[in-house]
C-alpha cells in the first residue's frame, strides 16, 4: 500500500485564552502534546495579565521575565528544528519556514513584554501595560501555530522511519520466501531479525506515544502478532526447506507469511491514520456500547422531550436485542442464561412501550404528575437494561472461566505431539478434529466476551484473540500433519512445538483479559487495590536517606515486562482463589488479598505505572510483601492445629516453604546494590522471588480452602459439566503450571532469535 506520512499527525489545540493552532492540525501523540503544554501555560500567563489595566513594577518585571523565557525556549527549540531540517531535505523548506515564523513570534513576544519599551502613563504607583492589546494574542497564536508545525513535521519524519523500516522488513521477507538452501536462509534470516528488532523499537516507541487508547490497543495486537510470528516464520521456513515436497509444510509456512504481512499493514494504517475499510461504524459494535448509548438517550429525556424521535429509540433497542441473539443462539450458552436473556429482552420491549406512551403524553400536556410518571418509566427502562447487561456479562464470563479452566491442561496439543512423533496419521486426524472443535469454542468465547468487554481497547483485544485462535488452530493442524508424515524430523517436531506454544500463550492471555473485563464491570478498571506501603518523605525512612532512588530506563523495563505480566496473571489467579472462600474475613484470605495487591503494584512498576516510582519504592514493597507472607505462614500453622493428623504434614511443609521463600525475598530486598547494573539485577531478583511466592500462594489457597471445608464437614456442590465437556480426552491429568507466556512484542526475544541462528546449520 502506498502510504503518505504527511496525513498522520497534526495539531488541533486550544486554550481557555482563545489561543488555537491551525484547525487542520490535530495532536495525536503525547510527545507533541507534552512539548506544547508548558509553552501554552507560559503564554496563557501573559494573556491573562493583559485583562487587568494596571500593574506594579514587580509584576511588570515578572511579565518581562516570562516573555524572555518564552523567547529563549523558542530559540533553543528552533535550533533543533533547523538541525532536523538540514538532515531531511524533503521537509527542509516547510521546516525552515515554520522555524522562521516561530523565531519571529518569540522575538515579538519578548519585545511586547519588555518593560523598557512600554509607554508608561503618568499615574500612581501602577502602570498600564500592553498598549497594543491584540499584539501578544496575535504573536501567541502565530507562535503556537508555527511551533506546532515544527513538531508535526518532526513527527512525520518518525512516521517515515517506521514506513521505511516496514518496507525493509517486507523486502527481506520476500527474499526469505524464495530461498532454497539452509545457508542462504540463515544469512537472510539474520538480516531479517535485525530489521525486525529495529521495527520493534520504532513501533514500540510509537505505541507508547499514541494518545488514542483504541489505536494503542490495535498497535499492541499487531506487534504481538509480529513477535510470535517471527519465531513461527523461522521454524516453518526451516521445515519447508527440510521437506520441500511436503504440501502441509508449505501451507504452514504460507500462513505465517500472510499473517505477518497483514500485521505489518495494520501497523502502518495506525501510524499513518489511514482507514481503507472505514473504521467508524454508526451502529454500536457491542452490547455494552449499545446499552450505554441507549441509556444516555433515555436519560436525556429528563432535560429535553424533543431531542430525538420514538423511532430512533426503538431502532436502538432493536439493534441491542439483535446482538443478544449472539448469546441466545450460541450452543455454549447455558439454558438458564438463555432463558433469562430472552425474558429481559421481552421486558425491555414492554418497558420501552410504556416509556414511549408516557413520553408522548408529557410532550402534549407537561403536567406535573405526567413528568413524575416519565421519571418512573425512565428509571424502570434503565434498570431493565442494567439487568440485561449483567445477564449477558455473567453468561460470557462464566463460559470463559469454564472453558479456560477446562483447556488449561492442553491435552489435545499433547496428544497431537505424541501421535505426530509416532507417525500415526489416523490418530493425528482424530485429534485435529478435536482441536478444531476446541477452536470453535474459544472463538465463540471471544465473540461473546467482546460484547461485554466494556471498553474499546478490550474489545480490540477480544477481536485479536478471536483472530489468533482462528488462525493458529489450522496452523497447528498443518504442523502436526507434517510431523506425522515425517515423524523422525527434529525440525518438524520443533515447528509443532512453536505453534502449540503460541496457542498456550493465547490461552494464558485470555485469563488476564477475563480478569480485566470483570474489573471494568465491577468498576475497578485502573484502580485495583494497591497496597499503600510506601515510605513517606521524612517518616519511617531515616535509613534510606543516603540511598539515591533509581528509575529504570525503557530498555530495562522491557526486560522485566515478561516477569511483570506473569506476576499480573498470578495476582488474578490468587484473587480468583480468595473469592471462592465463604468466609472473606478469614485471616488466610486477608493475608492472601494483601499479598496479591502488593504484587499487583509491583507489576505496575514493571510497566512504569502506579505508586512505585523508583527502585527503592519497589524494594520497600518487596520487604512488606515478604512480611505479609510470613504472617500468612503463621496463619497456616494455626490452621494445621485444627485439621486432621493425616492432613497436617502437607500443610506444615507448605508453610515452611513459604517462610523460606519470604526470608530469601527479604534478604534480597535489603541487600545493598551500588550502580545501575547491580540495581537492575536486584530489581529482577525481587520480582522473580515475588513471582515464586505468588506461585506457591496459588497452590496454598485451594488447599487451605479444601481443608477448611473438610474441617467443617462441608461437602460443597459441583456444577454439572457443560455439554462441551463431554468429549474430554482422558489421557491423564496435569496440574496447572505457573509458567506463563503472556508476552508483548519483546525486543529481547527477537534479539535472541538473531544471535542463536547458528543452530540452524546443525539441523
How does this structure look, described?
The chain has 763 residues and is mainly α. Among the domains are: 30-116 and 130-156, Up-down Bundle (Four Helix Bundle (Hemerythrin (Met), subunit A)); 163-272, Four Helix Bundle (Hemerythrin (Met), subunit A) (Up-down Bundle), CATH 1.20.120.230; 287-401, Nucleotidyltransferases  domain 2 (Four Helix Bundle (Hemerythrin (Met), subunit A)); 554-711, Alpha-catenin/vinculin-like (Four Helix Bundle (Hemerythrin (Met), subunit A), Up-down Bundle), CATH 1.20.120. Helices cover 71% and strands 0% of the residues. It has 21 helices and no strands. It has helices at residues 30-49, 57-87, 92-112, 135-178, 182-209, 213-242, 247-272, 287-300, 310-328, 335-365, 368-406, 411-422, 425-451, 456-485, 490-521, 554-579, 587-606, 615-640, 648-670, 676-711, 747-755. Helix 6 (213-242) runs parallel beside helix 14, helix 10 (335-365) packs antiparallel against helix 11 and helix 17 runs antiparallel to helix 18 (615-640). The chain is globular. Residues 1-24, 121-129, 280-284, 526-549 and 714-763 have low confidence and may be disordered.
Amino acid at each position: 500500500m502506498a502510504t503518505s506520512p504527511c496525513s498522520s499527525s497534526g495539531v488541533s489545540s486550544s486554550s481557555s485564552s482563545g489561543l488555537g493552532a491551525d484547525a487542520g492540525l490535530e495532536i495525536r501523540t503525547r510527545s507533541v502534546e507534552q512539548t506544547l503544554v508548558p509553552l501554552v501555560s507560559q503564554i496563557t500567563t501573559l494573556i491573562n495579565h493583559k485583562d487587568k489595566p494596571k500593574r506594579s513594577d514587580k509584576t511588570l518585571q515578572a511579565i518581562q521575565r516570562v516573555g524572555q523565557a518564552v523567547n529563549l525556549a523558542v530559540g533553543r527549540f528552533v535550533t533543533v528544528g533547523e538541525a532536523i531540517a538540514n538532515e531531511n531535505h524533503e521537509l527542509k523548506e516547510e521546516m525552515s519556514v515554520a522555524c522562521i515564523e516561530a523565531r519571529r513570534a518569540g522575538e515579538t513576544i519578548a519585545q511586547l513584554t519588555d518593560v523598557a519599551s512600554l509607554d508608561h502613563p503618568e499615574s500612581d504607583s501602577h502602570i498600564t501595560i500592553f498598549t497594543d492589546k491584540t499584539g501578544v494574542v496575535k504573536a501567541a497564536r502565530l507562535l503556537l501555530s508555527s511551533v506546532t508545525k515544527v513538531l508535526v513535521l518532526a513527527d512525520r519524519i518518525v512516521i517515515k522511519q517506521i514506513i521505511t523500516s516496514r518496507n525493509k522488513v517486507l523486502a527481506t521477507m520476500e527474499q526469505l520466501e524464495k530461498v532454497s538452501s539452509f545457508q542462504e536462509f540463515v544469512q537472510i534470516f539474520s538480516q531479517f531479525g535485525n530489521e525486525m528488532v529495529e521495527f520493534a523499537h520504532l513501533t514500540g516507541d510509537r505505541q507508547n506515544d499514541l494518545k488514542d487508547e483504541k489505536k494503542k490497543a490495535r498497535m499492541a495486537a499487531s506487534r504481538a502478532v509480529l513477535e510470535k510470528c517471527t519465531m513461527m516464520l523461522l521454524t516453518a521456513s526451516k521445515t519447508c526447506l527440510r521437506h520441500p515436497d511436503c504440501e502441509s509444510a508449505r501451507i504452514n509456512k504460507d500462513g505465517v507469511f500472510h499473517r505477518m504481512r497483514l500485521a505489518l499493514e495494520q501497523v502502518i494504517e495506525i501510524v499513518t491514520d489511514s482507514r481503507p475499510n472505514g473504521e467508524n461504524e454508526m451502529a454500536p459494535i457491542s452490547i455494552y456500547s449499545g446499552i450505554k448509548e441507549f441509556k444516555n438517550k433515555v436519560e436525556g429525556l429528563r432535560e429535553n422531550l424533543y431531542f430525538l424521535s420514538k423511532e430512533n429509540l426503538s431502532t436502538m433497542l432493536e439493534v441491542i436485542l439483535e446482538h443478544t441473539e449472539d448469546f441466545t443462539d450460541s450452543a455454549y450458552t447455558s439454558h438458564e442464561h438463555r432463558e433469562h436473556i430472552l425474558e429481559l429482552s421481552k421486558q425491555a420491549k414492554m418497558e420501552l412501550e410504556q416509556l414511549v406512551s408516557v413520553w408522548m403524553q408529557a410532550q402534549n400536556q407537561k403536567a406535573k404528575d405526567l413528568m413524575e410518571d416519565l421519571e418512573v418509566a425512565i428509571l424502570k427502562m434503565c434498570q431493565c437494561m442494567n439487568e440485561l447487561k449483567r445477564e449477558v456479562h455473567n453468561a460470557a464470563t462464566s463460559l470463559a472461566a469454564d472453558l479456560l479452566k477446562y483447556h488449561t491442561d492442553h491435552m489435545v496439543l499433547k496428544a497431537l505431539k505424541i501421535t505426530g512423533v509416532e507417525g500415526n496419521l489416523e490418530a493425528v486426524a482424530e485429534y485435529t478434529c478435536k482441536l478444531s472443535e476446541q477452536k470453535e469454542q474459544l472463538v465463540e468465547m471471544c465473540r461473546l466476551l467482546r460484547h461485554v468487554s466494556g471498553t474499546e481497547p478490550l474489545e480490540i483485544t477480544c477481536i485479536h484473540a478471536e483472530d489468533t485462535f482462528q488462525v493458529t488452530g489450522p496452523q497447528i493442524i498443518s504442523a502436526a500433519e507434517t510431523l506425522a508424515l515425517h515423524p523422525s524430523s527434529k525440525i518438524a517436531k520443533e515447528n509443532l512445538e512453536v505453534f502449540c506454544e503460541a496457542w498456550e500463550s493465547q490461552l494464558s492471555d485470555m485469563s488476564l483479559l477475563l480478569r480485566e473485563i470483570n474489573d471494568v464491570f465491577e468498576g475497578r478498571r485502573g484502580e485495583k487495590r494497591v497496597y499503600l506501603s510506601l515510605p513517606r518523605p521524612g517518616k519511617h525512612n531515616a535509613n534510606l536517606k543516603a540511598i539515591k532512588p533509581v528509575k529504570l530506563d525503557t530498555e530495562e523495563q522491557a526486560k522485566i515486562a515478561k516477569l511483570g505480566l506473569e506476576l499480573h496473571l498470578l495476582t488474578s489467579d490468587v484473587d480468583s482463589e480468595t473469592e471462592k472462600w465463604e468466609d472473606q474475613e478469614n485471616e488466610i484470605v486477608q493475608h492472601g488479598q494483601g499479598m496479591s495487591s502488593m504484587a499487583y503494584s509491583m507489576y505496575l512498576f514493571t510497566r512504569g505505572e502506579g505508586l512505585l516510582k523508583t527502585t527503592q519504592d519497589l524494594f520497600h514493597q518487596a520487604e512488606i510483601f515478604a512480611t505479609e507472607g510470613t504472617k500468612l505462614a503463621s496463619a497456616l500453622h494455626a490452621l494445621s492445629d485444627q485439621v486432621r493428623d493425616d492432613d497436617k504434614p502437607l500443610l506444615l511443609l507448605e508453610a515452611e516453604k513459604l517462610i523460606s521463600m519470604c526470608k530469601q525475598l527479604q534478604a534480597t530486598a535489603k541487600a545493598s546494590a551500588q550502580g545501575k547494573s547491580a540495581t537492575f539485577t536486584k530489581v529482577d531478583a525481587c520480582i522473580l522471588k515475588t513471582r515464586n511466592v505468588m506461585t506457591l500462594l496459588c497452590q496454598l489457597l485451594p488447599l487451605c480452602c479444601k481443608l477448611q471445608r473438610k474441617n467443617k464437614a462441608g461437602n460443597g456442590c459441583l456444577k454439572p459439566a457443560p455439554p462441551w465437556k463431554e468429549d474430554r480426552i482422558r489421557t491423564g491429568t496435569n496440574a496447572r503450571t505457573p509458567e506463563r507466556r503472556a508476552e508483548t512484542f519483546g525486543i529481547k526475544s527477537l534479539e535472541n532469535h538473531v544471535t542463536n541462528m547458528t543452530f540452524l546449520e546443525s539441523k
